Amino acid sequence: MFRTYQVFWNRLFQLIDAIIVVGSFLLAWEIKFHSGLLGYGRHLSLTSYLSVIIVAVPLFLVSNWIAGLYKPMRSRTFWQESIAVLRSVVIGLLTFMSLLYVAHMGQFSRAVLVLFGILFSLFTYMVHIGILTLLRTMRSRGFNKKFVVIVGWTPAIRRLVKTLEYQPWFGYRILGFLSEREVYADGIPKLGRIQDLQNVIQQNLIDHVIISLPKAEERLIPDVIGTCEEYGVQSLIVPDYFELLPAKPRFESFAGMPLIDTRYVPLDDAVNAVLKRAFDIVFSAMVLVLLSPVYLVIAIAVRRSSQGPIIFRQTRVGKNRRLFTMYKFRTMYYTGNNSSEEDTEWTTPSDPRRTAIGAFLRRTSLDELPQFWNVLRGDMSVIGPRPERPQFVNDFKTRIPRYMVKHRVRPGITGLAQVNGWRGDTSIDERIRCDIDYIENWSFGMDMRIVWKTIKEGFVHENAY
């Protein structure tokens, strides 16, 4: 969260990671050639591996830095730390093995290199998760605390205070707040008026001053920052328009002026976009090939259930508000105008328009299988907000705040809203809340969790009809 002492911690982590790299190599060599567990013929001496070790140390430190292991970890969850470690290990090992191949270093024992990869992965995860666990335990018990004073009181700061109270392992203790007004501050003691900040800093050990003033008092901010700098206390600003910002705002600079991107999403990053698209292509291709017999059986069943086409086509709104044709297995009786089927009303639990096989397909979500062709084409993604029909989009965008934000990314077959039960004729507000949460906090790990939850909990849902 805050970057105090981060340089020191980074250097310490880098030293520990370097020791892990060297130690993993030494232990791998020892297991292969001295433990008696693995057979071998002639082998190179340990000193012959020195060049490999020298190359490996900076390479893996760089991969750790790329993966984000040296970012502040005070507010990082165990899952976020685990994903960062996994990303670092994959990047480091792939780069390392590729370098050995390009440099024609084939004289080294493959068993040693494989053992090194296993040991390095294991030790890196154990050490980083172990340190995170130790620090969180210490903070929960009152050690390594950071003392905070709040200047001002706004809805934005109330949300921050609740977060710090509900998660004590962050290690922040709020001493109180200063304000020009009499406000209810959820039990946080008032230490005086803003002009009393200097006395408060002199009388207390304070690590951070968080400034959150309403617009009518923003003129006081320069004086507050000046007081903090005079006493060497770090000051941070929580803007009064906090609710308008995304979960992870991006700061840019233009002509020497700082700019805040009010709706930056991780998938705007080219690397993230390529990674997600690569997964979509591979996953959808596998589904289309491996489940081709299922497609054939469903197609025959739909054809025999009633007259009409097997595939139902419908116009939906996709990324950047572009229209595309979405495909599903037909689940309703054909009326002679397939393109308008289901266009004007939601499906109901006992909808008479459904065929017998159609009711089953809807209940099991098997009618959605043709959408993997949409994914392969690039109209959709495996994971993302569900696409909606144009007429509903025109209606919702005027009634539901931030509804159109969902069109910043490709729509998906399943998504965060769906695995949380918001599908079918359910709350659009809650569905959009989940969609925006997904868009603003996207990670490849989040996609994998949604895929796993979709598979684990099955495709049958009470709201699927």
Structure description:
Helix content is 48%, strand content 12%. With 465 residues, the protein is of the alpha/beta class. It has a five-stranded parallel β-sheet with strand order 3-2-1-4-5, with helices on both faces. A two-stranded antiparallel ribbon has the order 6-7. β10 (381-383), α12 (390-399) and β11 (412-414) form a beta-alpha-beta unit. α8 crosses α11 (371-377). The chain starts with 5 loop residues before the first helix and ends in an 8-residue tail after the last helix.
SSE series: HHHHEHEEHEHEEEHHEEHHEHEHHH
Biggest sheet layout: 5 strands, parallel
- Strand arrangement across the biggest beta sheet: 3-2-1-4-5
Q: Which class do the helix and strand fractions yield?
A: alpha/beta
Envelope shape:
flat
- Please estimate the helix content: 40-55%
Q: Provide mean pLDDT, rounded.
A: 81
Q: Approximately how much beta-strand content do the residues carry?
A: 5-15%
Q: Whole-Å distance between the termini?
A: 44 Å
Residue ranges: pLDDT <50 for 5 or more in a row? Answer: 338-343
Defining key terms:
five-stranded parallel beta sheet; two-stranded antiparallel sheet; 15 helices; 465 residues
Sum this structure up briefly.
The chain has 465 residues and is an alpha/beta fold.
Show the helix and strand layout:
Elements: H1 6-33, H2 50-67, H3 78-102, H4 110-140, E1 146-151, H5 155-166, E2 172-178, E3 190-192, H6 197-203, E4 208-211, H7 221-230, E5 234-237, E6 250-254, E7 257-261, H8 270-290, H9 292-305, E8 311-317, E9 323-329, H10 356-364, H11 371-377, E10 381-383, H12 390-399, E11 412-414, H13 416-419, H14 428-440, H15 444-457
Parallel strand pairs: 1-2, 1-4, 2-3, 4-5, 10-11
Antiparallel strand pairs: 6-7, 8-9
Helix pairs in contact: 1-2, 1-4, 2-3, 3-4, 8-11
